[in-house]
């Protein structure tokens, strides 16, 4: 009654407190809730005066809705939340990759501008030196001409070295940015694959638990008496009992009588003994129903 009187959403959020209240009972405290009503507080234990039994703890193993529509809606909600989380992670990864790419491009463009500026500066100095060289050459002094040419070559060589150095630094920056981007993408892909694998494992475990519970409930629903009746009844009565229980076929044995698995499988498939090879009958093999209780 304590569980049936609350909504599924409330039970899903506060299942432990509601179950403890149902088992231990509760006492009303002076603490007020959002609507001004006193909040029930579950007791810490339950005492049975008949035998003095004291229950001090309740362990909730699992909570599963009985209604199929509620179970399906809850499963869809979980799947939708997983899809939303996955899409959010993918969008964040793409955004991070684009951001890193833009930063790398920005640094590269800035480095190109700096390289062009340095090259233009060196070119200007070179032009100035060429002008100086031309002026010296016009004076007819061979020594000044040689010095100016040597200086021009030196500056040109320094400019080439500087330009090559700047290009190497720009390439290193671009390579590092690309490496970081690829590493980030690989980490996100690995995290996504790991989460998908964990979800598949969890889903398989849940399905296995559902199948085990289904088989257990079916066996408990049949009961020992029904299974005994199926074992001692004739073939026609077994068929009627199986049809009334909604079963198509069943194999019941006491665990000590040997079973001819080949003929038993044919019997479960509806193939009579007349459809079996004569060689099997001559060899003394039992029929489909022999060895069954």
Automatic annotation (TrEMBL):
Coiled coil: none annotated. Residues 1-67 form the Major vault protein shoulder domain. This is Major vault protein shoulder domain-containing protein. It comes from the Eukaryota. One of its GO terms (cellular component) is nucleus.
């Amino acid at each position: 009654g304590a569980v049936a009187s609350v909504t599924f959403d409330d039970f899903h959020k506060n299942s432990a407190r509601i179950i403890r209240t149902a088992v231990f009972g509760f006492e009303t405290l002076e603490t007020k809730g959002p609507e001004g009503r006193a909040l029930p507080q579950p007791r810490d234990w339950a005492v049975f005066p008949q035998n003095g039994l004291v229950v001090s703890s309740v362990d909730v193993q699992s909570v599963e809705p009985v209604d199929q529509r509620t179970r399906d809606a809850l499963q869809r909600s979980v799947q939708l939340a997983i899809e939303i989380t996955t899409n959010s992670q993918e969008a964040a990864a793409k955004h991070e990759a684009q951001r890193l790419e833009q930063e790398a491009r920005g640094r590269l463009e800035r480095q190109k501008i700096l390289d062009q500026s340095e090259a233009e500066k060196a070119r200007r100095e070179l032009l100035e030196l060429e002008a100086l060289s031309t002026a010296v050459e016009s004076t007819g002094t061979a020594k000044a001409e040689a010095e100016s040419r040597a200086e021009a070559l030196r500056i040109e060589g320094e400019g080439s070295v500087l330009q090559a150095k700047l290009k190497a630094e720009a390439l290193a920056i671009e390579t590092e940015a690309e490496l970081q981007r690829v590493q980030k993408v690989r980490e996100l892909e690995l995290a996504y694959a790991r989460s998908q694998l964990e979800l598949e494992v969890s889903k398989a475990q849940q399905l296995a638990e559902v199948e085990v519970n289904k088989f257990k409930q079916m066996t408990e629903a049949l009961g020992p008496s029904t299974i005994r009746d199926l074992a001692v009844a004739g073939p026609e009565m077994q068929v009627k009992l199986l049809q009334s229980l909604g079963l198509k076929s069943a194999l019941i044995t006491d665990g000590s009588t040997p079973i001819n698995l080949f003929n038993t499988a044919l019997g479960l498939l509806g193939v009579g003994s007349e459809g079996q090879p004569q060689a099997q009958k001559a060899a003394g093999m039992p029929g489909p129903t022999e060895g069954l209780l």
